[in-house]
Amino acid sequence: MTHDMKAAGHDTKVAAKDTGHAVKKDTLKATHATEKASDKAAHATAKDTKKVAHATDKDTKKAAHATAKGTKKAWDKTKSTTEGAFHGAKEGAEKKTN
Fold first, then answer.
1. Per-residue pLDDT tens over the stretch 46-81
2. Rounded to an integer, what distance in angstroms lies between the CA atom of residue 68 and that of residue 71?
3. I need a labelling partner for 88 at 20 to 30 A (CA). Which of 28, 31, 55, 71 fits?
4. DSSP 98
5. Distance, CA of 63 to CA of 55 (rounded, Å)
6. 3-state secondary structure string, the chain?
7. For residue 7, what pLDDT band results from cuts at 50, 70 and 90?
8. How far apart (Å, rounded) are the C-alpha atoms in residues 15 and 6?
9. Is-above-0.85 flag for pTM?
């Protein structure tokens, strides 16, 4: 009976050791897979961030150009209207009333 107890204890020890090795192996596999997925996600995020930054820069320059063009057009129109009003008022003031 003592021999059976020793054998059972030995078998349990071997099984526990095998289980520990299997857990360690699977944990390392999971860790490596997680690291690989994290690196892949980080790379994709960095790539997409650069795309968004480039698009934002491009659109900002486009909007600034359009704003500058619209401002110049409004300025020219205001200047023309003001000059027209000035000349009209001057002519009206210089006319003699009958």
1. 999 999 999 999 999 999 999 999 999 999 999 989
2. 5
3. 71
4. -
5. 12
6. CHHHHHHHHHHHHHHHHHHHHHHHHHHHHHHHHHHHHHHHHHHHHHHHHHHHHHHHHHHHHHHHHHHHHHHHHHHHHHHHHHHHHHHHHHHHHHCCCC
7. confident
8. 14
9. no
In the structure encoding, which two tokens stand for residue 83, read together? 């000059």
Pair of tokens at residue 3: 């021999």
Cα gap 68→22, rounded to integer Å: 68
pLDDT over 80 (residue 31): yes
Alpha carbon distance 5, 3 (integer Å): 5
Give the closest residue to 46 by CA, choosing from 35, 38, 58, 57: 38
